[in-house]
Design brief:
6 strands; 3-stranded parallel β-sheet; 6 helices; Rossmann fold; 13% strand; 214 residues; alpha/beta
């Protein structure tokens, strides 16, 4: 399952995975854009993709379609440099979209990931995490001036910390699930995104320094 799969890195990753023989679920907020992306991947790779509308029922929908076994969850969807705003749940847009939504989806899908055996959670972060840090006391900029770049940076740092901590907890629990993080590099939708997808799925656990400094 790839979130944000209707364009850019997500679409390239979905195409790469489908071309490698995977059955891919394209997670999309917009059903029509999801259908268009699925048709494109199908033309290139064959009928190995389905669309999942990324709403509050997404986790149940994924479990229904996979028989409660999900081998790879790619947390890719994201926004960058948005003006001040909040999600439907009241979170600052970038931290809510880039991190909190993915964290919630990952935990909801954890039973299916555990069931699969050898599953991986791939979280797309960024070197932009190297910013002023994560202000856990004011994640949503209610007590300080909103700066789009700072909000993006903290959301990417949150991605990375989540991936590392998730991997630590999975190892401690003896779960057959690995959490990895990827920095996609300076890419365009048709450039090195395919390499990013394959490298991330095959890469080292996020808790190892090499996987967070690519």
């Amino acid at each position: 399952m790839v979130t944000g799969a209707t364009s850019g890195l997500g679409l390239a990753c979905a195409t790469a995975l489908a071309s490698a023989g995977a059955r891919v679920l394209l997670a999309a907020r917009d059903r029509e854009r999801g259908k268009a992306a699925a048709e494109r991947v199908t033309r290139e790779c064959g009928p190995a993709v389905e669309v999942v509308e990324l709403d509050r029922r997404a986790a149940a929908d994924v479990r229904d379609r996979t028989g409660d076994a999900l081998h790879v969850l790619m947390n890719n969807a994201g926004v960058m440099g948005t003006p001040p705003g909040v999600t439907v749940d009241g979170f600052e847009t970038q931290i809510g979209t880039n991190h909190l939504g993915h964290a919630a989806l990952t935990w909801l899908l954890m039973p299916a990931l555990r069931e699969a055996g050898g599953a991986r959670v791939v979280t797309v972060s960024s070197l932009a995490h190297r910013g002023p840090g994560l202000d856990v006391e004011d994640l949503h900029f209610t007590g300080r001036p909103y700066l789009a770049g700072r909000a993006y940076s903290q959301s990417k740092l949150a991605n990375l910390l989540f991936a590392i901590e998730l991997d630590r907890r999975l190892r401690a629990a003896g779960a057959d699930v690995v959490s990895v993080a990827a920095h996609p590099g300076l890419t365009t939708p048709h450039c090195s995104a395919t390499h990013c997808a394959v490298a991330a799925v095959r890469g080292s656990p996020a808790s190892r320094p090499s996987s967070t400094r690519s």
